[in-house]
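Researcher: Can you fold this with magnesium ion in place?
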Amino acid sequence: MTGSIKPSPTPKTKAARFSELLTRPQLTFLMEAHNGMSARIVEDAGFEGIWASGLSISTALGVRDRNEASWTQVLEVLEFMTDTTSIPILLDGDTGYGDFNNFRRLVKKLCQRGVAAVCIEDKIFPKTNSFLDGDQSLADISEFSGKIKAGKDSQTDPDFSIIARLEALIAGRGMEEALKRAEAYHAAGADGVLIHSKKSNPDEILHFVKEWDNRCPVVIVPTMYYRTPTERFREAGVSTIIWANHNLRASLAAMREVSLKIKQEESLVGIEGNVANLTDVFALTETHEVAEAEKRYLPDNRRRIASVILAASRGKQLAELTQDKPKCMLDVRGEPILKRLVRSLHGAGSDDVTVVAGYKHEAITLPDVRKLVNDQHESTGELASLACAADRLKGECIIAYGDILFRDHVLGLMLGAKGDIVLVADANRPDPALRPAADLVACSSPCTPEHLIHDQPVDLLDIGGDLDWQKAHGEWIGLVRLSAKGALLVKEELAAMKERNEIGKASMADLLRRLAAKGAKPQVVFTSGHWLDVNDAFGLARARNFL
Ligand code: SPV
Ligand code: MG
């Protein structure tokens, strides 16, 4: 025998599946749903089909089962229901929302939206719920038959079903009328008939089923005769049972109970164990799927920048002001310097901020930062602190001194510049007679107005406090940005220095000088002012004026 590949069967439409449920010999159960979530719950419970109840949809919308909701509003609800489910839905289409013409349009829309079937009842628009005492007048037989025919002629899915609901027993018009109408509607093309009763016993239903003798499938709604064992309907040859409104009624009872209890107890403690938990809620709407889809469809454009702030020193020149805290925690206009610095970093997209503390590290109590401590801060320098945070230097990162203040655009300037190692320098070197610069920079070119206007970087040739003031081109402000490659270069240099025991009291300038000497080409972008550092009481006073 030669192997042959069977073509995989085309998946059945919901309409085709409903048609099978309606016509098969076994009994089918349809469970009521009235929105996307209740429909999903019905499917999860194992039902093979859904009854989109007019009473329930109306009530859930807060209106009466009297065509107060427009048919397009019902259609919108149905769209949510078809979206959340894979099983067929039979819509309770009331009287078809108008004449044959309105019904034609409804059928077309239902086919477009994947609703498997519709049931229409032979009453007058606006319909009244069958269990109410209001007007239950019946439609003219031939007019209703024409409506069914119009619907069948308009369905764009050949398997779509139209169920004709007989209200003769509800209207008190008797069995003969019910059977006569069933015959007419069947002849007009109805795929099944729904025989409705408001009696609490099933006698007239069973009588109808017997007389009808399965000329087409029979659907029943045992809301009032619910005590009758299901087996009797199975034996009688009923096709489909609709449990018509019980999810809506269950939810009303549950919501009322929960609301009352919370109102009375002014607490959630009494109900928490009795309501669906949030994990359940999120699972029902498959919320996790969005996160997975994001990975497939969303470009990961977020720039992740880690920051390391060196904040281990006391600031001895500040004397008693730093008796109980490091200088980075000095208050400037109501906030510690460090807090402002962290806020600027966050604002520039660096959420991952590490502070290397030392002197009075316990005084650093900022939220949203990671704190590491350089225990040897009294006998070591800046590089020893940086080495404590070496494993934070991965990907793009910023290293900042903890005692500086700057306008936010200075960070933008640095983050926007190309280069694996980018420093910001102030083109205005301080007058050494007034304030000695901590770190002067010598560059491949002095800062010109062009450099300032176009944020053009220049190469760093040398850096340090010992540079000749005349030959220097600016003062490093204590901010450096590293690309992922720059971070690797810095880590390698730190590791090499550590191995040779050269970290000791070495400074950031020592590191940058080495990197420049090795050809790593650190870049310098210039600012003209817009920053300051706090080294002494004058610095603190300037900081207060700066803000
Ligand atoms: C509905 O569920 O809206 C129905 C069934 O039409 S019944 O309320 O029993 O008439
Ligand atoms: Mg109804």
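Model: Folded with magnesium ion in place. The longest helix spans residues 246-265.
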